Amino acid sequence: MSGSLSSLPFKQFVFYRPGDESGGLNALIANAGHEALRPGAAYAWDGTRRGASEMLIWQYTIAGRGKVSCGGKTFDVLPGEAMLLKVPEKHRYWLPEDSEGWEFIFLTLSGSEVMRLGMEARKRLGVVIRHAAYSGVVRTASSILSESLADRLKSRFEISGRAYAFMMALLSETNSREPKPSGFPLEAAREHCLAHIAEPLTVDDLAKSVNLSRWHFSRSFRKATGIAPHQYILEAKMGLASHLLLNTRYSVKEVACRCGFEDASYFCKTFKKTHGSAPGEFRAR
Q1: What is the pTM of this model?
Q2: How far is residue 108 from each of residues 88, 98, 151, 177, measured CA to CA in Å?
Q3: Which of 71, 138, 188, 235 has its CA 20 to 30 A from that of 168?
Q4: Looking at the domain assignment, is residue 69 inside a domain?
Q5: Range of the structural domain that residue 76 is part of
Q6: 162-192: b (≥16 Cβ within 10 Å) or e
């Protein structure tokens, strides 16, 4: 299966060097990789010694154990967990001496929109995040790495699109340490939202997609994620809108349509309320 973790080779890295041709794109992949460290391997990174350029690092443990120190706290990074780090930043991650090894995949991303979305994700989810192996964020990252290793990502626009898709998948995750109602089909509701983002999607639509009443769905969704479902829908639409404005030449009316807004003027009003500037001003920054 494309993007499967089991199909990835060991110690393979892909580096993207878009240089001047990155031309104003605000979501990019700098590099991606898959590695398996043996016990006792020399492996340590210091976030204050990796240059001044802003980057976002997502590193997901497949097997073994790593360690990360950030914000005055130290965490183990266990199988099924990812660390989310910023560069430059006072952090350190390494292979502990008593670890049985550490196998992981990683993405390093850059761009102003990546950093904005990444810091929002970390605010919600924390430095160490638990992801199910079948979750959207792991599937997206694995697919990006598989495509990269097969040399199928050719243009800067394809690379930017994959970077943005990963950030949206990341934002759709919620911290597994938060209590979740037993049996609540959160992932199914999220996937329905992303699949129908170009439609005038409502909370009723999401509730129907998982066969729940609006009241039960709304209450359960808020308890599981910390935000109301209508706010989740809005954030997903506004995130897509900002990407289209920054990375395509679609007119504002076309962007509104692709984000499920039938009324362009209402879209502009909503966008300004969310981002603090009108779509045209946002694009001209």
Answers
A1: 0.61
A2: 13, 27, 17, 25
A3: 71
A4: yes
A5: 5-172
A6: bbbbbbbbbbbbbeeeeeeeeebbbbebbeb
